[in-house]
Every structure is written in structure tokens, then in C-alpha cells.
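Q: A reviewer asked whether we had any structural model of the full assembly, not just the individual parts. We don't, so I'm hoping you can provide one. Inputs are below.
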Amino acid sequence: MTTFLTRRAALFAAATCAATLGLTAIAEAQTSIKIGYAISRTGPNTGGAAVTTIPNYELWVKEVNAAGGIKLGDKRVPIEVVQYDDRSNAEEAVRALERLINQDKVDFILPPWGTGLNLAVGPTLNREGYPHIAATAVTDRAPELAKRWPNSFWMLGTSGDAAKTLVDLLSKLRDEKKIGDTVAMVSIADGFGIDLSTAARPALTNAKFKLAYDKSYPIGTQDLAPIINEVKALNPDVFIAFSYPPDTLALTEQSRIAGLNPKVFYTGVGTAFPLYRQKFGKNTEGVMGIGGWSGDSPAIKDYLARHKASAANGAEPDRWASAVTYASLQMLQQAIERVGKIDRAAVIKDLQTGTFETVIGKVKLENNMPTRYWWVGQWQDGEFYGIAPAKNEGARAAIVPKPAWVAP
Amino acid sequence: MSARVAGFGFLALAAIALLALVPRLGNAYYLALAISLLQYTVLATAWGMFSGPTRYVSLATTAFFGVGAYTVAVLGEILPWPLVLLIAAALGAVVAAIVGLSTLRLSGVYFVIFTFGLTELIRQLVVWFEVNKSRVLGRYVFVDITQADIYWQLLGLAAAVFLLGWLIARSRLGFALRVIGEDETVAKHCGINTTFAKVALFTISATVMTLVGAIMAPRWTYIEPSIAFNSMISFQVLIMALLGGAHRLWGPVLGAVPLTLLFELLSARFPNTFTIILGCIFLLIVYMLPRGVAGLFEKRSTTPGGKTTQRVAA
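A: Here is a predicted structure for the entire assembly that you could use as a starting point for your response.
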């Protein structure tokens, strides 16, 4: 041997071999889990992302890393985050994800905020085989999408279901002689308002409600006083607004000023925001809205406290998609830990079939969608409790009629 | 055809053949970046085709891009793909002709403001129709088109645009437009039908923009007015064409390529300060390169008294 190789060369060769082996060993043992996300930090989606999504991602990463990381086999590895701004733009969101997958080579991806962006990134995540747990998308095509993209999970349900649950609740209240049958409905002329009003219109008519008022207003409408005054003149039993946060606040304020106080007062996205209580205080009592949670459950109470402690200036989560977002992160973690290694196909399989312990209770998906949702919530004593569907665990009884507005 | 033109044509063909191989690299990220580069190259070149010679600054890029995207959203699942593209192109051309006939009498800042308003007008019309008639807002596009298909279509369109631009520049129409750009009154006195010339080129340029929108639409699966009519596109295309130099056919490419790469680099490295850095870069471009990158090349290649390139930029 030494005739062919000098001693130094042999040593060098041996060292190289050892180093190579060592490197392979390091590469095989995962030292961290890379998790990437692109989220709207600028543009029109910023508000929603800042309330519902970003604080939960940050809370979850902080908690998991404080506990040593995600358990892979018999050891824990910390989470390493790579994140971008999608600028509320579909093209930007798709490209950011392609960058995360191909350049940053992340192990898992957390979804963007909102229905539009979740749909935009759906095909990419499907093609690359990453689990896609959409926690902030409400779409009627969810069951069809779940079939088309078996890696996608639609945690917030369909708008058809939302409208149906609301109408069922109203029918029950009418049967109990708590309300009459005149309904006034307004909706914002944007995805959410159109979907829900389109689903609610036939549901109300089928349930023999009298739809006395049915109008939509353009996004960005500043003066909603004319609508409220017209509705007040009709003196309806039920007021429904499928609205977005800015107009949810404006409609409520205007109703208080005009003294529109129907037996059921329901507003859309934003009713479940902590901001709503900050603004209206005692006047929130009895207001219904989309979303809700089991405010009495110890898991939710604990989550609320942790969220407040972690978020910048003690911000509270909203009472609808926040807890669902956090639950979806817990599900991802439990699925990874059960699989025990970075095997995305196996993680997707586990998400499809497994049962998960989360802050919103036990979750078991069917056809990639949860079986229980909170569709109607109501402010009762400063907390936004889920009231429908009534069969959900922790559902409270509705306070009807709504108490009168008080002077602020 | 001179030997120089033949040689140039051969080089262009070789470049296209080489570029057509990009999807074979098998890296989805590079493909996405290449799609982005091509998209802005075509948009900026189409923008420069009209706005370069006539010096009408148009902010209507988004309007046509959105019309194309929405055509796909409505018809994509119903009709075969080539037919959808054809209808999109026809729609874009009709809208452009109507808009052109009614507005190209405006000039200067009035035209700029009108074209900006046009995007909003079309967007609101679409919203109104969807809200009151079809009662859906946000459509789904499930068509069987891969990223590589999108890339190849854009590459084909880019080749067509350059060929078209080259032909127009050598035609009577191109000459007429240059005269209009120098002085519209003089052009009229020379007997040039200025309205026809302007509307014709505006329509051609808009048709190309509409096609880009249609080709890009399958990338997003979900289309709603705020996605299709995103006015950022108008501004990005404008700044790209100005950086490159809109008075040359190949000028806008010199702006589109570096700026697309820069946007990409900035959003990857500085996701949180992207907008601030972008603003500073725009200021720099306007102050340092008033005639664009193409202007830099020209300064070197002309003699001090060369009048051909001493025109004042719009």
C-alpha cells in the first residue's frame, strides 16, 4: 500500500473518508425543522393577517421551541422559520411559496391569510406534496377542492353552511315565539357578502321568512346611515348584515345612533374581533355575528391567556378563526410527531385519518374538513360565545330579544 | 433582406430556442422567475410600442391585463384553450378601440388620469355585473395548463411582439407615429391621419396586454376583481419601460429584466422594508437615468453632433 501512497496522502484520504461519513451522519439526523410561510404584511389583507394569523404563528413557534421543539422519534428539534411578505398579491404568494420550496427547501409550509390567497397557492402546494391546512378560507367549493387536492384541509367550512345555520337558528327562535318573521338583510358587494347572501336568500324564503329588505353596498362605502334609516322604517324583527370589519363597525355605530334595535341584530366579519368590544363596550350585549367559540372551555381560556401574554401589547385573538388557526398548527405538530420524521406524504395521511387534541376540542377530519363549526356567536357579558349549531359542545342559549342600546 | 438583418434574425431564433429549454431545468422556482421575467418583458415592450413613439403615458395596462384574466375566469372551463385566447384578444382589441377612439384626443396629464380611471371603471363594471347579475364574486379557473405551458405561451407571445414591433417601426404606421410623437400638429398638416394611427397602435399594444393577462390567469386558480385588476401592474410596467427607455423597441427589456430581478431579490431578502427600498430606487432611476438604460448606450454610440438621438425624452 505504502508503495502507491505516501503516508501523508493516506492520512488525508482517511480523514476525508471520516469527514464525509461524519457529514452524511449529520445530514441524516435532522437538527431543525424548517417551516416557511408567506403572509400579507402589506396591502389590503394586512388587517386580517395581523389579527388572526401572524400572532398565532408566532405564539406557536415560540411555545414549541420553548418546549425544545417538535418531537421526531426520541428527540426534539427546534423550528426554524423562513418568512416572506406576499403583499396581498396572488402572484407574489405563489412565487414566495415556490421560493420557499425550491430555494429555502423548507420542510413544511403554513398557509397565507384569506380565501383568495389560499386558493391561489393550492395548486402549488398540491403539486409539491406539502400539507395545506387552510384555516382562514371560507368557500362553498371546499368539499370539491378537498377532493381535487387531497393534501388540502378546509378548516372554516362553507358559506352555504354558515347561512343555513343562521336561518335554522332564526326558525327555532320563531317557533319559540321569540321573534316574528320580518327580516332585513344587507350585504357587502364582495366575495363574502355575495356568497352568504346568495345562500341565505333561498334559505330564508324556504323557511317562510318575509325578506322585507335586501340590498348590497359597495366595498369601501363610508356612509351607511341611509341603509340603517331605511331598515329602521321597516321595523324588522331580524337585522342581518353580511359585512366586513370596517362596515361591521359602521353599521353597529349607526344602528345605535338611529335606535335600530331589532330582536336579533347580526353582523358579519369583525363582530368576533376584540376591537368590536373595545369600541362598543356594554353595547355589544346581545349582538350576534359570524363565528364564536366555546368561551367556557378551560382549553380556550388557557389559549386566550397565552395569546394575550405572547402577542405585542397584549392583543387578544378574534373569536372565530384565531382559535381554529392555532388548532390547525397543533394538528400539524401532532401529525409530524406521530409520523416521527419529515415524511410529508405520511403527515398528510395522518391529518386525513387521525384524531387531534386541540384548543377547540377533539378534531377528527372527514373528507379533509372538520365536522363541527361555530357559525353564530353572540356577545354575552363581554365574551363572544358560540350559540349555533346548538348541538356543539359548549353552545350557549341565545339572548333574545337583544337588550336596548345604552348611551356610551 | 440585408445580411445584418438575417444575422440578427438567426441570433433571435437561437435565443428563443435556448430560452424554450428553461422548463427543462426542472426547478419550479427558476421557472416561476422566468415566467415573471417574460410577463413583464412582454407587458413593458407592448407598453413601449404605443407610448414610446407617441409619448402618451398610459396607466391602462392593468385594465387590459384584467380583461384577459377575467375572460379566462368566465370562459376557461367551458371553451377550448385556443378559442379562449382568441376571444380574450378580440375583447381586448374592441375595448381598446372604443377607449382609443374616445380618449386619444386627450393629451398630457389628462390622458394619464383617464387611463388610470379606466382600470377602476372596468373593475367596477365587472363587480357590478357579478354582484347583480351572476351573483358570484370570485371565480375558479381549473384548466389543464402547466407552468411550462404558461412559460412557452409567453415566450411565443414575446417573440411575436418583437417581430411585430420591428415590422411596425419599418412601416408607414411607425413613421407616422414618430412624427406624431415629435409634433402632432405638424403631423396633421403633413396629411397623416393621426387618430387612425394612434388608435391602431393603441389597439395592438392593448391586445398583447390582454393576452398576457389571459395566459397568466391559470396560475392563480382563483380570480376576483381585486386580483385581476391590481393597479400595481400598471405602475411597475411604466417604471420598467421608463428605466429601459421606451423610445426603442428593445428598451423596455433592459428595464423589465433588472427590475423584475430586483423586486425578487428585495422581496426575498428584505420582505419587511420592500416598499421603502423600492421607492428610493424609483427616485434614483428618475433622477439618474431620465432617458433610460437605452439612452446610456446611445450616448456612447453617437457622435457629439448626432441629432438623431438628441430628442428630449417625454
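A: Points you may want to mention in the reply: Residues 10-230 of chain B form one domain. DSSP finds 14 helices and two strands in chain B.
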